[in-house]
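== Sequence and structure of one protein ==
=== Format: two labelled lines per protein ===
==== Data for this protein ====
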Amino acid sequence: MHVMLCSNSIELVDAASKAFSKAGYRLTVCECGLEALAVAEVVDADLLILDLETRGLDCLLILAAIQELAPALPIVAVSTRPQLDARAVSHKGVSYITLPSDSAGAMEALLAGLAQTERTRFVSGSTST
């Protein structure tokens, strides 16, 4: 499984690297929204994790553009603080998770749980025709 992560948070990138490598996933990290748009166009990813705190384009613009480029790509929006955009993101059919900001271990555990959930969804979706 191939996961794209759009974040410039060192803590989130480190936690995702640990969680997803343990799960055997390939991880592509994009440091800004524009980079995520470019990568989404050429990489066949199975999941995009979008950090709403990432610099660059407004997260709703990024979501709309990525959904246009890769309509089948599942997206999970994350943040270490409650976001005003969370409700709008949810209305676009995107899951939203508030990440713990006080513990790298807790963030890694949450991402590992997300990895397991997405792996189950991916495996069941890829075997059903």
Q: What stands out?
A: Residues 78 and 97 are 5 Å apart (CA to CA).
